[in-house]
Write a structure and sequence with these properties.
The chain is mainly β and about 100 residues long. It contains one helix and seven strands, in the order E-H-E-E-E-E-E-E.
Length: about 100
């Protein structure tokens, strides 16, 4: 898995402690077949099982794959105009495929 972090996202993560947690999860109580959406947080999630360190280039990126599935490219970027936030993309998508 290739991890690509753009400069703006890396700066935001460094300002918030230098660690980013990335995972995909399906919404609770939704229809079968709903794709898992990507999540990226600088706050440590309550359940740490399954996370592995995938990048240590200025920031630490911890990623939890879906079973044996992982993206070819995990992209980390910034999204939003008023409320900027760090987001993760699974092979260019906000949903895990």
């Amino acid at each position: 898995m290739d991890v690509q972090v753009n400069a703006e996202a890396a700066e935001m993560v460094r300002e918030r402690g230098g660690t980013l947690w990335v995972w995909a999860a399906r919404p609770w109580g939704c229809c079968w077949g709903t794709p898992a959406m990507m999540h990226a947080e600088t706050e440590q999630p309550p359940d740490l099982s399954g996370f592995r360190l995938v990048c240590r280039d200025g920031i630490d990126v911890w990623f939890r794959p879906i079973g044996d599935h992982a993206p070819d490219v995990l992209e980390i970027g910034v999204w939003g105009k008023r409320k900027r936030r760090v987001e993760a993309y699974w092979d260019g998508l906000r949903m895990a495929t």
